[in-house]
Write a structure and sequence with these properties.
alpha/beta, about 270 residues, 13 helices
Amino acid sequence: MNRVILHIGMERTGSSALQRYFARNRTVLRVMGVRYPQAEAAGVALEKHQDLVDAIATSARGELLWEHGSAAEVLASYVKRAERSANTVISAEGLSAPDPVFAHTLAPLAQQFDVRVIVFLRRQDEWAVSSYRNAVNTGTVGGQSIVDWLADPQTRARMDYRAILRFWEEAFGADAITVLRYPHDVPLVPAFLAAADLPKAAGVLPDAGLRVNESSSDTDLREAMARAGLPPVVPDLDQDQRDALLEDYADGNAEIRRRYLSQRRTLFGVA
C-alpha cells in the first residue's frame, strides 16, 4: 500500500524550512520514491500545500475556491498523484488549525493509503512569544498587547495541542500519529525524515540543514511595535506569566506525553 505522510505543522516550528527542503529537492526525491506534489496559487509555485488548506477552509464555509475548486476536487488531485508514488509528503501548517474540518476532510485517505500524521510541538510559552512577535512583524497583531493577544480564544485554542491531536486521532487512529518536539538549534529535516521512515539518502540532499524564518532583530521588533501603536519594547513574557501559561495546559501536555511519547517523563522537559 502506498504511503501518505501528512506534515501538519505546527506554525512557528520550522515548517517553512522543511517545505523549502522538499520543494527544492522535488526531482531528486522522486527518484528515491518520494513525491512532494507541486502546489500553485495565482500561477505561482508554492513551497507548501496551501491550496489544500484553502480549499478545505472555503468549502467548510460553503464557498468555492475559484482557482482550485472544492475541497473534494483539490484532494482528488493529490490522491491521483499519490497513487503513482510509494511515498507522498503533504505539508501545510494550516492543517493544524484548531478546527476538526481539516482532519475530517482528509480522513478518507486512510481507505486507500497507509497514512502517517507528523507534527512538531513547541512549548506553549515559547510558541506564544514567537507567534506574537511574528504577528507584530507581519502587521496582524491588531494593536493587541501580548497579554491581550494571549487572552484571545483563538490564540488559546492554537495552544491546546491535546484538542488538535484528538481531531487527527479520530480521523486516523493514535498509531498513525507521530509527535516530535521542536528542535531549537538543530535542523528539523533529519528528524522528520526518520519519523516518516523515508530513505536515509534523502538526508544528504541540499538544504537538509535549512533553518528559515528566524527571529527578527530587537530593533525591527521595536519599530514594528511602534507602527502597531504599542510601546516600542521587545514583547516577551516574564517567568510568572510563562509558568501560568504552562500550568493552563499541563494536563493536556501530560496526556500527549502518555499517548504519543510514553518513553519520556515530560513532554517539554518541565513538570
